[in-house]
Amino acid sequence: MKRKASGTKTKGIADTIEVVYTSEHWSLLKEIRDKAINIMEKLAKHNIQSIIYGSITRGDVSETSDIDLFVPYQISSFKIETALQQEGLQIFAKKIVQATPKHLVKAHIYPSEETCITFPLTSIREREFDFIHFGGSLDLKQLLEGKRVPGVDKRLILITPLEDGHRESQVIGYESIIAKKIGVSVDLVKERVRVLTTRDKIGRTGVYLDVELSPEENIDEVFKGLKDKDPIVRRRAKL
After folding, report:
1. Cα torsion through 205, 211, 215, 220, rounded to 10
2. Beta strands 165-170 and 137-139: pairing type?
3. Residue 59 to residue 148: CA distance in whole angstroms
4. Which of 18, 13, 125, 21 is nearest to 74 (CA)?
5. Are 59 and 47 in contact (CB under 8 A)?
6. DSSP count for the chain of H helices, then E strands
Protein backbone atom coordinates (compact mmCIF):
# COMPACT_ATOMS: atom_id res chain seq x y z
CA MET A 1 0.00 0.00 0.00
CA LYS A 2 1.26 3.49 -0.83
CA ARG A 3 0.14 6.94 0.26
CA LYS A 4 1.45 10.47 -0.07
CA ALA A 5 3.11 12.16 2.87
CA SER A 6 0.89 14.48 4.85
CA GLY A 7 0.63 15.96 8.32
CA THR A 8 -1.66 13.14 9.45
CA LYS A 9 -0.25 10.38 11.65
CA THR A 10 -1.53 6.86 11.12
CA LYS A 11 -1.83 4.40 14.00
CA GLY A 12 -2.52 0.68 14.11
CA ILE A 13 -0.63 -0.10 10.93
CA ALA A 14 -0.67 -3.78 9.97
CA ASP A 15 2.39 -5.16 8.19
CA THR A 16 3.86 -2.25 6.18
CA ILE A 17 2.86 0.72 4.07
CA GLU A 18 4.92 2.93 1.81
CA VAL A 19 4.73 6.72 1.96
CA VAL A 20 5.60 8.68 -1.18
CA TYR A 21 6.92 12.18 -0.51
CA THR A 22 5.48 15.14 -2.36
CA SER A 23 7.72 17.89 -3.74
CA GLU A 24 6.56 20.04 -0.81
CA HIS A 25 7.74 17.38 1.63
CA TRP A 26 11.18 17.17 0.02
CA SER A 27 11.44 20.98 0.19
CA LEU A 28 10.50 20.97 3.87
CA LEU A 29 13.05 18.24 4.62
CA LYS A 30 15.77 20.22 2.86
CA GLU A 31 14.81 23.41 4.70
CA ILE A 32 14.98 21.75 8.13
CA ARG A 33 18.21 19.93 7.28
CA ASP A 34 19.81 23.17 6.07
CA LYS A 35 19.00 24.79 9.42
CA ALA A 36 20.54 21.84 11.25
CA ILE A 37 23.66 21.91 9.08
CA ASN A 38 24.07 25.63 9.75
CA ILE A 39 24.11 25.13 13.53
CA MET A 40 26.28 22.00 13.39
CA GLU A 41 28.83 23.81 11.23
CA LYS A 42 28.88 26.77 13.63
CA LEU A 43 29.59 24.40 16.53
CA ALA A 44 32.24 22.55 14.50
CA LYS A 45 34.09 25.83 13.93
CA HIS A 46 34.69 25.81 17.69
CA ASN A 47 35.72 22.13 17.74
CA ILE A 48 32.36 21.00 19.09
CA GLN A 49 31.19 17.86 17.30
CA SER A 50 27.49 17.02 17.29
CA ILE A 51 25.04 14.51 15.91
CA ILE A 52 21.41 14.99 14.95
CA TYR A 53 18.62 12.57 15.72
CA GLY A 54 14.92 12.02 15.13
CA SER A 55 12.67 12.53 12.10
CA ILE A 56 15.20 14.77 10.32
CA THR A 57 17.53 11.75 10.02
CA ARG A 58 14.80 9.45 8.68
CA GLY A 59 13.00 11.93 6.44
CA ASP A 60 9.50 11.80 7.94
CA VAL A 61 9.47 15.46 8.97
CA SER A 62 6.47 17.73 9.42
CA GLU A 63 5.93 21.46 9.86
CA THR A 64 6.26 20.99 13.62
CA SER A 65 9.51 18.96 13.53
CA ASP A 66 12.18 20.16 15.93
CA ILE A 67 15.94 20.17 15.37
CA ASP A 68 17.51 18.02 18.08
CA LEU A 69 21.30 18.01 18.33
CA PHE A 70 23.41 15.94 20.72
CA VAL A 71 27.03 16.55 21.71
CA PRO A 72 28.18 12.97 22.43
CA TYR A 73 30.73 13.71 25.16
CA GLN A 74 31.01 15.73 28.37
CA ILE A 75 31.79 19.37 27.73
CA SER A 76 31.63 22.64 29.61
CA SER A 77 28.37 24.51 29.08
CA PHE A 78 30.47 27.68 28.93
CA LYS A 79 32.22 26.40 25.79
CA ILE A 80 28.93 25.71 24.00
CA GLU A 81 27.36 29.00 25.04
CA THR A 82 30.46 30.96 24.04
CA ALA A 83 30.47 29.28 20.62
CA LEU A 84 26.80 30.12 20.07
CA GLN A 85 27.25 33.73 21.15
CA GLN A 86 30.33 34.22 18.97
CA GLU A 87 28.31 32.91 16.02
CA GLY A 88 25.57 35.47 16.68
CA LEU A 89 23.05 33.05 18.15
CA GLN A 90 20.95 33.95 21.18
CA ILE A 91 20.10 31.54 23.99
CA PHE A 92 16.36 31.46 24.69
CA ALA A 93 16.20 28.79 27.39
CA LYS A 94 18.19 26.20 29.36
CA LYS A 95 17.29 23.03 31.22
CA ILE A 96 18.85 20.23 33.25
CA VAL A 97 17.00 16.92 32.94
CA GLN A 98 17.30 13.32 34.09
CA ALA A 99 14.72 10.68 33.13
CA THR A 100 15.26 8.39 36.15
CA PRO A 101 17.92 8.20 38.90
CA LYS A 102 19.84 5.66 36.78
CA HIS A 103 19.80 7.68 33.56
CA LEU A 104 22.20 10.23 32.14
CA VAL A 105 21.92 13.79 33.47
CA LYS A 106 21.69 16.11 30.45
CA ALA A 107 21.61 19.81 29.76
CA HIS A 108 19.45 21.41 27.07
CA ILE A 109 20.32 24.74 25.47
CA TYR A 110 17.78 26.29 23.09
CA PRO A 111 19.21 28.74 20.53
CA SER A 112 15.70 28.95 19.06
CA GLU A 113 12.24 27.66 19.90
CA GLU A 114 12.55 24.71 17.51
CA THR A 115 16.23 23.90 18.14
CA CYS A 116 17.66 22.05 21.15
CA ILE A 117 21.33 21.27 21.80
CA THR A 118 21.70 18.48 24.36
CA PHE A 119 24.95 17.48 26.05
CA PRO A 120 25.77 15.14 28.96
CA LEU A 121 26.60 16.38 32.44
CA THR A 122 27.49 12.84 33.58
CA SER A 123 29.36 10.00 31.88
CA ILE A 124 27.64 8.33 28.91
CA ARG A 125 27.03 4.62 28.77
CA GLU A 126 26.78 2.69 25.51
CA ARG A 127 23.10 2.00 26.21
CA GLU A 128 22.42 5.74 26.29
CA PHE A 129 23.93 6.10 22.81
CA ASP A 130 21.54 3.35 21.72
CA PHE A 131 18.57 5.44 22.87
CA ILE A 132 19.59 8.06 20.32
CA HIS A 133 20.29 5.54 17.55
CA PHE A 134 16.86 3.99 18.20
CA GLY A 135 15.21 6.98 16.54
CA GLY A 136 17.91 7.45 13.89
CA SER A 137 21.05 9.59 14.08
CA LEU A 138 23.55 11.25 11.70
CA ASP A 139 26.75 13.21 12.06
CA LEU A 140 27.48 16.39 10.10
CA LYS A 141 29.33 14.59 7.29
CA GLN A 142 26.47 12.16 6.76
CA LEU A 143 23.94 14.98 6.83
CA LEU A 144 25.91 16.91 4.21
CA GLU A 145 25.94 13.77 2.06
CA GLY A 146 22.14 13.68 2.17
CA LYS A 147 21.97 10.33 3.95
CA ARG A 148 18.83 9.06 5.64
CA VAL A 149 18.73 6.20 8.14
CA PRO A 150 16.06 3.92 9.60
CA GLY A 151 14.72 4.66 13.06
CA VAL A 152 11.64 4.27 15.24
CA ASP A 153 9.21 7.15 15.75
CA LYS A 154 7.06 7.94 18.81
CA ARG A 155 4.23 5.78 17.47
CA LEU A 156 6.54 2.76 17.68
CA ILE A 157 6.67 2.54 13.90
CA LEU A 158 9.94 1.75 12.12
CA ILE A 159 10.62 4.33 9.40
CA THR A 160 12.82 2.88 6.64
CA PRO A 161 13.95 5.43 4.01
CA LEU A 162 13.15 4.68 0.36
CA GLU A 163 14.22 6.53 -2.75
CA ASP A 164 10.82 8.20 -3.14
CA GLY A 165 9.78 8.34 0.53
CA HIS A 166 9.77 5.77 3.31
CA ARG A 167 8.31 2.48 4.50
CA GLU A 168 6.44 2.18 7.81
CA SER A 169 6.56 -1.11 9.74
CA GLN A 170 5.20 -2.24 13.09
CA VAL A 171 7.69 -2.58 15.94
CA ILE A 172 5.53 -4.45 18.47
CA GLY A 173 5.83 -8.15 17.83
CA TYR A 174 8.92 -7.69 15.64
CA GLU A 175 11.40 -6.44 18.25
CA SER A 176 14.30 -8.72 17.27
CA ILE A 177 13.99 -7.81 13.57
CA ILE A 178 13.79 -4.09 14.38
CA ALA A 179 16.85 -4.33 16.65
CA LYS A 180 18.93 -5.77 13.81
CA LYS A 181 17.73 -3.17 11.31
CA ILE A 182 18.69 -0.19 13.46
CA GLY A 183 21.70 -1.76 15.19
CA VAL A 184 20.63 -1.78 18.84
CA SER A 185 19.94 -4.54 21.36
CA VAL A 186 16.63 -6.39 21.52
CA ASP A 187 16.41 -5.50 25.21
CA LEU A 188 16.54 -1.80 24.39
CA VAL A 189 13.76 -2.13 21.79
CA LYS A 190 11.61 -4.00 24.31
CA GLU A 191 12.28 -1.34 26.94
CA ARG A 192 11.28 1.47 24.56
CA VAL A 193 8.11 -0.45 23.66
CA ARG A 194 7.28 -0.81 27.35
CA VAL A 195 7.94 2.87 28.13
CA LEU A 196 6.07 4.29 25.14
CA THR A 197 3.05 1.98 25.44
CA THR A 198 2.80 2.84 29.15
CA ARG A 199 2.78 6.55 28.23
CA ASP A 200 -0.08 5.91 25.79
CA LYS A 201 -2.12 4.22 28.53
CA ILE A 202 -1.46 6.42 31.57
CA GLY A 203 0.27 9.47 30.11
CA ARG A 204 3.71 10.87 30.82
CA THR A 205 4.55 10.31 34.48
CA GLY A 206 7.32 12.87 34.68
CA VAL A 207 11.08 12.65 35.02
CA TYR A 208 13.39 12.62 38.01
CA LEU A 209 14.96 15.99 37.20
CA ASP A 210 13.47 18.79 35.12
CA VAL A 211 15.10 22.05 36.16
CA GLU A 212 14.43 25.16 34.10
CA LEU A 213 17.13 27.83 34.12
CA SER A 214 17.05 31.42 32.98
CA PRO A 215 19.28 32.27 29.99
CA GLU A 216 21.61 34.08 32.40
CA GLU A 217 22.12 31.16 34.81
CA ASN A 218 25.25 29.02 34.54
CA ILE A 219 24.45 25.35 33.86
CA ASP A 220 27.66 24.03 35.41
CA GLU A 221 27.10 26.00 38.63
CA VAL A 222 23.45 24.91 38.92
CA PHE A 223 24.46 21.29 38.32
CA LYS A 224 27.12 21.54 41.06
CA GLY A 225 24.42 22.78 43.42
CA LEU A 226 22.19 19.83 42.50
CA LYS A 227 25.03 17.41 43.21
CA ASP A 228 25.75 19.04 46.55
CA LYS A 229 22.18 18.60 47.83
CA ASP A 230 20.97 15.46 45.99
CA PRO A 231 22.81 12.18 46.76
CA ILE A 232 21.21 10.43 43.78
CA VAL A 233 22.52 13.03 41.32
CA ARG A 234 25.89 12.98 43.09
CA ARG A 235 26.06 9.19 42.82
CA ARG A 236 25.22 9.23 39.10
CA ALA A 237 27.88 11.89 38.50
CA LYS A 238 30.54 9.61 40.00
CA LEU A 239 29.83 6.70 37.62
Report:
1. -130
2. unpaired
3. 7
4. 125
5. no
6. 9, 12
pLDDT of residue 9: 39
Residues of the chain falling short of pLDDT 70: 1-14, 199-206
User: Would you state the pLDDT for residue 13?
Assistant: 42
SS3 for 194? helix
Decide: helix, strand or coil at residue 206. coil
Q: Are 215 and 92 in contact (CB under 8 A)?
A: yes
- β-strands 16-20, 2-4: how paired? parallel
Tell whether pTM > 0.85.
yes
Secondary structure element (H or E) that encloses residue 138, with its range? strand 137-139
Chain centroid to CA 118: 8
Quote the CA–CA distance of 121 and 99 in Å, as a whole number: 13
